[in-house]
Amino acid sequence: MNKIILSFVLVVVVVAGIFYMTKKSGPSHQTPTPTLTPTPTPITVVIKGFAFNQSLITIRKGDTVVWTNKDSVSHTVTGDGGLSSPLLGQNEIYSFTFNTVGTFNYHCPPHPSMTGTITVSP
């Protein structure tokens, strides 16, 4: 009978010890993993041979287009919605982020045959 009581007391002590230890340490908190939002890669338009190498582009709202002048003569990127570069010399760049949905036509005023269109979707 003493063995049964001793075993019962031992089990109660072990269970109470486990309960005490888990309550003392508290709940485990996991550090939230940050969610990475991919950054859109800019669309590159090369100006060469008196032409824009991509004259029709479709992008999403918030995307950026970068024009790089590879011609030996200067060019501009001029168009709708505030699109207005300075005169770009050889290897100079101009970038513009499109934050409005719509269709934007652009051209190079000194060279009117140079035209392009950018369609911005939501």
Give a nutshell description of this structure.
The chain has a domain at 43-121: Immunoglobulin-like (Sandwich). It is α/β, with parallel strands linked by helices.
Give a structural overview.
The protein is an alpha/beta fold and 122 residues long. The chain has a domain at 43-121: Immunoglobulin-like, CATH 2.60.40.420. Helix content is 20%, strand content 34%. The protein contains one helix and seven strands. The strands form two sheets. The protein has a four-stranded mixed beta sheet with strand order 2-7-6-4, with no helix packed on it. Strands 1-3-5 form a three-stranded mixed beta sheet, with no helix packed on it. β6 and β7 (111-121) form a beta hairpin. The N and C termini lie far apart (80 Å).
What is the CATH superfamily of the domain at 43-121? Cupredoxins -  blue copper proteins
Radius of gyration: 33 Å
The assigned CATH architecture of the domain at 43-121 is: Sandwich
CATH domain topology of the domain at 43-121 = Immunoglobulin-like
Number of DSSP helical runs: 1
Counting DSSP E segments of at least 2 residues, the number of strands comes to: 7
Poorly predicted runs: none
Helix content: 10-25%
Report the span from N to C terminus: 80 Å
> How would you name the oligomeric state of the polypeptide chains in this document?
single chain
SSE sequence, one letter per element: HEEEEEEE
Rough outline: rod-shaped
Largest sheet: 4 strands, mixed
Strand order of the largest sheet: 2-7-6-4
Please indicate the percent range of residues in DSSP E strands (runs of 2 or more).
25-35%
Keywords: Copper, Metal-binding
Pfam families: Copper-bind
GO molecular function, one term: copper ion binding
Domain Blue (type 1) copper: 47-120
